[in-house]
Amino acid sequence: MTIKPDHWIRRMALEQKMIEPFEPAQVRGAVISYGLSSYGYDVRLADEFKVPSDSGGVLDPKAVSRGESEGIVPFVDLQASTIDLAPNTFVLGRIVEYLRLPPNVMALCMARAAMPAVASWLIRLLSSLAGRVRHFVYRNTGPRRSACYAGEGIGQVVFFSERRAVRGDLRRSGGQVPAQQGITPARVG
User: Fold this and answer.
1) Could you read off the pLDDT of 84-106 as tens digits, one per residue?
2) What is the helix (H) or strand (E) element at residue 130, kind and residue range?
3) Within 87-188, where are the H helices?
4) What are phi and psi of 15, to 5 degrees?
5) Please, what are the domains in the chain?
6) Is the peptide bond before 5 cis (omega within 30 degrees of 0)?
């Protein structure tokens, strides 16, 4: 399995619509950079978040849709261009880009190294996936408030390919890989 360079990513994005929207070069300036890089694609943070309420209770990933009446911390939907994270807090988020991976391609999403808060996501995107990285935790583990900006760089996707498609493709094995759009909590059952 080999890591794929910029010319391969560009070709796949333009011919196969592997990344939409696609930025063919690094966008820099007054923003945290995003777009095509030498060996990956820098993705952007969307303006859609799920924030745990301040009501107390248990943070239960199996019960995100249940509410305070059951002692579970509900998540509040929030749309914002900037999120200000207090120390020891987090939000759930997603990326702007829509990804379509061929059956012989796998991708890893990694947090940007210089972010002031820790984006704790290292997500393996399965072959034949179509959708957005739709559920990652962006948390502030530091002692100071930290900002994150929608529409700006948040992480890098690195692509790997094999000559042949894998046998354990999720769709062929009976699993479901829906074309995710919004932030999607973990599914149970």
Assistant:
1) 888 888 888 888 998 888 888 88
2) strand 130-131
3) none
4) -85, -40
5) 2-161 (2.70.40.10)
6) no
